[in-house]
Amino acid sequence: MSAPLGSVGARQPLDRVVVRIAGDSGDGIQVTGGQMTSTSALAGNDVATLPDYPAEIRAPAGTLPGVSGFQLQFSSSEIMTPGDQADVLVAFNPAALKVHLRDLRRGGILLVNEDAFDENGLRKAGYAASPLDDGSLANVALHRVAISRLTREALAGTGLGAKDAERCKNFFALGMLYWLYGRPVDPTVRWIRDKYAKRPELAEANEKVLRAGYNFGNTVRLFQSVYEVPPARLAPGTYRNLDGNEAIALALAAIAQRSGLKVVLGSYPITPASTVLHACSRLRAYGVTAYQAEDEIASIGAALGAAFAGALGVTTTSGPGLALKGETLGLATMVELPLLVFDIQRAGPSTGMPTKTEQSDLLMALFGRHGEAPLPVLAPATPSDCFWITIEAARIAIRYRTPVIVLSEGYLASGSEPFRVPRPDEIPVLDPGYLTDPAGYAGAYARDPETLARPWIPAGTPGLQHRVGGLEKDDLGQVSYDAGNHQRMVALRAGKIAGIAADLPPARLEEGTAGDDLLVVGWGSTCGAITQAVREERALGRRVASLHLRHLNPLPRGLGELLAAFPRVLVPELNTGQLLWLLSARFHVDAVGFHKVQGAPFRVGELRARIAEMLGA
Amino acid sequence: MSAPLGSVGARQPLDRVVVRIAGDSGDGIQVTGGQMTSTSALAGNDVATLPDYPAEIRAPAGTLPGVSGFQLQFSSSEIMTPGDQADVLVAFNPAALKVHLRDLRRGGILLVNEDAFDENGLRKAGYAASPLDDGSLANVALHRVAISRLTREALAGTGLGAKDAERCKNFFALGMLYWLYGRPVDPTVRWIRDKYAKRPELAEANEKVLRAGYNFGNTVRLFQSVYEVPPARLAPGTYRNLDGNEAIALALAAIAQRSGLKVVLGSYPITPASTVLHACSRLRAYGVTAYQAEDEIASIGAALGAAFAGALGVTTTSGPGLALKGETLGLATMVELPLLVFDIQRAGPSTGMPTKTEQSDLLMALFGRHGEAPLPVLAPATPSDCFWITIEAARIAIRYRTPVIVLSEGYLASGSEPFRVPRPDEIPVLDPGYLTDPAGYAGAYARDPETLARPWIPAGTPGLQHRVGGLEKDDLGQVSYDAGNHQRMVALRAGKIAGIAADLPPARLEEGTAGDDLLVVGWGSTCGAITQAVREERALGRRVASLHLRHLNPLPRGLGELLAAFPRVLVPELNTGQLLWLLSARFHVDAVGFHKVQGAPFRVGELRARIAEMLGA
Amino acid sequence: MSAAGPPPTRKDFASDQEVRWCPGCGDYAILSTVQAVFAKLGLARERTVIVSGIGCSSRFPYYMNTYGFHTLHGRAPGIATGVKLAAPELSVWVVTGDGDALAIGANHFVHAMRRNVGLKILLFNNRIYGLTKGQFSPTSARGQRTPSTPLGSLDPPFNPLALALGAGATFVARSVDRFGVHLAETLEAAAAHRGTAFVEIYQNCNIFNDGAFGYLTDKDGRVDHALYLRPGEPLRWGRDGEHGLGLGLAGELVRVPAAAAPGAVLRHDPGADSPARAFALAQLDHPEFPVPLGVLRAVVRPTLEGEHERQAAAAREGGGPDLARLLAGPETWEVGAGEAGDPAGTALSG
Amino acid sequence: MSAAGPPPTRKDFASDQEVRWCPGCGDYAILSTVQAVFAKLGLARERTVIVSGIGCSSRFPYYMNTYGFHTLHGRAPGIATGVKLAAPELSVWVVTGDGDALAIGANHFVHAMRRNVGLKILLFNNRIYGLTKGQFSPTSARGQRTPSTPLGSLDPPFNPLALALGAGATFVARSVDRFGVHLAETLEAAAAHRGTAFVEIYQNCNIFNDGAFGYLTDKDGRVDHALYLRPGEPLRWGRDGEHGLGLGLAGELVRVPAAAAPGAVLRHDPGADSPARAFALAQLDHPEFPVPLGVLRAVVRPTLEGEHERQAAAAREGGGPDLARLLAGPETWEVGAGEAGDPAGTALSG
Ligand SMILES: Cc1ncc(C[n+]2csc(CCOP(=O)(O)OP(=O)(O)O)c2C)c(N)n1
Ligand SMILES: Cc1ncc(C[n+]2csc(CCOP(=O)(O)OP(=O)(O)O)c2C)c(N)n1
Ligand code: SF4
Ligand code: SF4
Ligand SMILES: [Mg+2]
Ligand SMILES: [Mg+2]
């Protein structure tokens, strides 16, 4: 039986909804959020999500550090962020309420599991009195539901143990949400059956509870109104839900398959990059060899060694790991072999806040190597873009025989959105352009006059044995300490990287037109929030434009001119001004930075306020 | 008997002389140069040297890669560089001639060991015919001396084996040079006796040969004129000869002794930094514990661990090693403990040209860590300054509880100059300001309102047990994932480092005055060449000023204003424009870079030409 | 609190931090045993330093009211060595995990073993990466399915005891999170050792690798599957000590019926100069053999920090520090206030 | 030159680079032996890769007409592993030094041992840092005076063979630069091994540590101080094989007079499953014992690259690569060209 979608006459149409689900890390918050997301996406909405994990270690149940959250925005129009304030907050326990209440909008729906607000729960969350009763929640629409008890009751007689039964309660809440927004339960039922295929009693129980929640919403008419969010006007095509890290893995498989390149991923687990390794280790049939090495140095080493043998070497990490890979990256710039390095940035410095997002590795990516060792740096804008930028990075790495750093972010890594699934033939074929004919050999560092790239000769190629290494060498690849040669080689390597700009799309505005009163420049994950903020301000008639940089090195052509076309420039970043620094140095632009380092992305509202302020509005 | 200094009527006075000695790496070139240097310094000249080692491995004798060189300038006025072109070149073999001839000035004296110009020697150096005979040396004053044979003859009858005898020939040449410039042989005789105390037969032989060379010069009247370079007008005081790496070690001992601080140096050998480790390992009696760890990461780790126990932690390395230390440096910025990091830069990237000098690690020092992890960066200007900057770096590290990077250079490390020996009481006492009284404790990260520094509590202090680490934390030192706390902590750490500027001398010109037509800005070892070039140009009436930066982060106060006071700014660097980048980003100054990456320092002549060009002269 | 107060109790070693491991994690038991042992040994809190890397286990210092340094993944031994060099009088403990010590940190680990620096290294071996959510570690069994090895891991695991012995360790022991008394004894032995003491502690990660040591901690496991090593005593195990270890024909260790041939049972000698027998013992593993628990090797060798002190003392004797002389170096000359070229202005000194 | 030509000779393995070690350096002899062995084994130059770190020894690849990668200090095993994973069909050799492999590189070293990846690792052990001019290395003798240990070094040295065995190595051997025939045999055995083969080569650095192995390479050394290991043969040494190794009471190896009690002399079995005996052998050292030379251990285990290939093949069998399906993932939906809100525009698919 599928819930009768659209059969409720009274559903109010809404353009977009932000739902936040919060509870203990043991409460299945991420699963619940994930299901709500897929179901919304399947219903044709545009979606954007923001999981918010607690610190890595499981904190004691019920405490503030143990709270896990998940935010989802679904919409009938295009959206670019998971939203600022929540329209609905589901709080499974007092701690979750305490942490997340401030993000619920005035008048928003607050759904709490009343059963968890006992003395013990309140104490653990540090509440002296129950917030449910002390009038402190007057500004929101509070709904107290005995979710635990109702779940237990729904399962009475199934023979399920109390602990297992309690674990199903997230599906009760999910059922209520599905009722609230008129969502079908079918996709989740299918997912449950699949997931618990080996434990049918759990499958049955979860399904039962999901339906019970849905029906409870329906029967009790818990909410004053129920809503519907019609499908969004996405570009036609086949869509799936995808997060940024899985997107990287998929792209690597696509490269391997389409270009016939062996991909060797050397990696070492680190939050929030580990899931790329996980996803890649399921791609063995696709020509992707995932190898968990003993550390970050060995993992990039394996990738570089693989490149010497003609494979596309890849390594994935986060900030601390990138810091360790600097020496090998320097070697890679010297031996000029293709190599992809993904840094899924997290809040630093040092161990910092490993589960939180940040954009603070840009200058390290650009400069974190000794000597003159320039290399291309790219950054994806969205989870889907993690797919396409991986292919772009591989294109550059292969064409220019160079390591490339891709700076993704924790926020993109686990945030998901609808991804238009490309047909395999939409994926470009990258020609490795191996040199295999000894007749074409003019030295290991004889350069292509156009790209300045050296030949890529996979070890094993007959008749082309050669030696590479980290010492300075001449065009033939012979070690050289000659003064003039070094100066020339430094210039050639730099020129090669700078020259990539000619091969990139020139800088262009996302929104607005040259000559507007303000230009907002961003990079990485802030693209969505900036675009949305700028659109919303423009809708009010403000003359504000935006520009997004996917390529941080080299910067796209025409950027300087564009920047100069605006009287004021704002550079919002999740760091203390690293792109700002780059633009200052390169273009002497008198830009203003907007720096958030709070382990969280920008809110559209924050950006709008800043834009308005700068426009004197 | 001491050679009769000053007893030759015909000595022509000279202001300064540049001598280059070159030969096979087995020929004792560095020893010869070192002796000529000390003797000149002892004679009251100002001196500056530039050793030029071959690549690390001994190449086959007689070949071009095996050539070792040493340049010395000694002067009766203040000098700042080892000089551009040589007035005298001593070439022990054809390979040495081939490599170094181009640096001998027109009309300069060329002294060759004729015996080495046999068929074998010429072939190894790649000469088809002997340059001594083919007229190609017409522009220089060639002196052919059978140095090997004369040495052997001087030792005939001493019973010394042929091989050992041949090894003495560098002292024959040195003797001739001493004659040429009217130097006493005594200091070198003393040195020989000391060095070969355990092998008196060698002491005797070397002394004999030295005197033979001197007398040969005298007797044969080899040179048309002989010269004398009167003592220089150095500031009064006691002087010694000192190279940059030894200066660092001495300063560490001085800190340990004067401030009663235990110094723990963790290091791992790497050219050209190793000699700091060597020198420190002889300082055990001075409270300096030198520890050769298993790698660069362990060595900075040991230094940081020592700091946690209240010692001054120090680590020394070169570029590849600094690349490896980045992660631990990030931790050090997070735990805010004093730590000195010396990077003796060499030509990169990667292994590059390990024995050659460069200034290309500046941006890595500034930005080579993930997350926002700012720290102070300093750079010495001269070998002597390596002493004083070490003390300054320790002062900052201790006062601000921060790691400090000192960027020295291969050129300073092994280059030597007269160092005015300070009395111990001239060395400032650095107060560690340990917190040892529990009553004064307000949290591990409670900050001094003036410096923003946190307390330094040596592990072992009763009643003040606390925990530090790489995770973000609050003022008490408790781990915190709070959004606002992180933003505040990032700002506090940055503010602390930026605030050091208030504690530094403001920017000031070395030469010239604000409003001149051109300002030349430099950092590190280029100071000498720049100052000299600017002085010489000023002497011609050109309005050019110079400014030298010892502090690269934070930059000194007033720098922006000073830069703005000049219509044109030139930034010469031994890299591709790293300080230029920094100044551009910070001050949007439209400076022009002058970039030399040839593994060698600037020549005064090159700089003067560039200055003249910019002034349109 | 002052150093002169009454000796601290076990509770005094607990910090004010809420312990944040997963409920049921083996780390809890280890924490409380360590606290008890420190109290029993009368360690002064302020003279005790705990240095850790990164991992669940490495959160340990936060829960101890001692000096603590939560450092970087794999780097604790190097950092702890610096603490010890700067302050040899402190009791320095390293807490690490199987990933921390044996994956990224194996270099520092083997060097700490070889150097015999006064560190007590406790390796919580749960055979998994706990903190990063369950990838295989260098001690995970071959074939183990984890997020990064969905088809089964391919790497043969390290034997941490064998690795330590191969690196020249002077003290090597093993215990189990849940064997409180045995663990306490083992930690006491480690504390008593001068130089590097390495203790592998089998630790259950009930979230990502539950039951990895179930055979040992299950009801009869501690009797049937453990070989308790006691100096001078025969190598016997089983409910009634019915199994023994004897010498095989090729010199390997073999099972012998202890009752039938008591003379054939070898005796344990952790102090043997050669590490060969300890290495042979370290090879024994479940299920063919019982798991050796206790001290495999404990030999006396000079410590790094002791030797450093010795050299420093000798250096001071051979002419104590004379800064002025050091600064002057082998040769100086004087420049007077006189004019350039004035010979009086310059005087040599040897 | 084509792959189909006549088999290369020893000279064909020499590159066109002038060899630049110090005259008299032991590296020369090793180079020429390696070239001879490669020729004898008929290795194809283009299918051979030599990966090195940094050090005098690590200049090796420049002198070989094969593929060569002179990488970073200590990192060669990790990089070579990548070569092997990408191209399992190539013959991959690592050349390293005692500092390169055992100081900065010990982590990668021990992991290469444990993983049994098809690398032949040749460690030129001169017990010194040659390239950086003579500092002590992790294999330098305690007390050695070097530029960084003017008062004598304090670190006890690693025993590289023991470390490798402790790490789980499947092939461990030792030879000497100047013992050309023995070295050649040993290298051939290493080449024949599947998986990681570790060969320690005693190498004289005549500049910074001259004569470190003089006792062995001096006139009578190779007879008096070497124990040549040969599978199945008794462990005997001396001019007339007069000394033997037997089993001591505590299970250690002891000298026995071979002539008097031939039955008491143990036989060498490099293929023994347990590494215990090999470890005991590795402990023997000059001057108390002869130095064991030859193959200490050689056992057959699955190789990393082989297992990777196996898993890949299995994965392909269980549903070959289907990129379209992979990209689509578990669940997709269609958005048509219709208007927003038009239900026809959206269709679910499972
Ligand atoms: C340089 C670096 N690389 C990777 C990580 C991620 N990381 C943290 S802990 C850990 C492994 C933890 O495993 P283990 O040491 O066994 O400790 P456990 O959590 O099991 O106690 C990893 C890979 C990191 N923090 N730093
Ligand atoms: C990261 C890094 N640290 C240090 C060095 C300096 N370095 C080069 S080779 C070497 C040691 C060489 O010793 P070994 O490996 O024994 O080789 P050998 O020269 O004796 O053959 C060192 C410390 C370096 N090149 N890179
Ligand atoms: S993940 Fe495992 S090791 Fe970590 S705290 Fe939880 S149970 Fe313990
Ligand atoms: S320094 Fe030693 S190891 Fe290096 S080339 Fe010279 S003799 Fe050989
Ligand atoms: Mg673990
Ligand atoms: Mg060596």
Describe what you observe in this structure.
The complex is a heterotetramer, with 2 copies of chain A (617 residues) and 2 copies of chain C (350 residues). Chain A folds into 4 domains: 12-228, Pyruvate-ferredoxin Oxidoreductase, domain 3; 239-426, 3-Layer(aba) Sandwich (Rossmann fold); 438-502, no CATH class; 518-614, Rossmann fold (3-Layer(aba) Sandwich). Chain A is of the alpha/beta class and 617 residues long. Chain A is globular and about 80 Å long. Chain A is built from 20 helices and 23 strands. In chain A, 65% of the residues are buried. Chain A has a 7-stranded mixed sheet, with helices on both faces. A 6-stranded mixed sheet of chain A has the order 3-4-2-5-6-7, sandwiched between helices. Chain A has a 5-stranded mixed sheet with strand order 18-20-19-22-23, with helices on both faces. The longest helix of chain A has 21 residues, at 200-220. Chain C is of the alpha/beta class and 350 residues long. Chain C has one domain (10-233, 268-305): Rossmann fold (3-Layer(aba) Sandwich), CATH 3.40.50.970. Helix content of chain C is 28%, strand content 19%. Chain C is built from 11 helices and 13 strands. In chain C, the strands form 3 sheets. Chain C has an 8-stranded mixed sheet with strand order 2-1-3-4-6-5-11-7, sandwiched between helices. In chain C, strands 8-9-10 form a 3-stranded antiparallel sheet, with no helix packed on it. In chain C, α1 (27-41) packs across α6 (180-192) and α5 (160-166) runs antiparallel to α9. Chains in contact: A-B, A-C, A-D, B-C, B-D, C-D. Chains A and D meet through α1, β9, α9, α11 and α12 of A and β2, α2, α4, α10 and α11 of D. The structure holds thiamine diphosphate (TPP) (2 copies), iron/sulfur cluster (2 copies) and magnesium ion (2 copies). Residues 55, 97-99, 126, 128-130, 137 of chain D line the site of one magnesium ion. One iron/sulfur cluster binds at residues 21-22, 25, 27, 56, 126, 130, 205-208 of chain C.
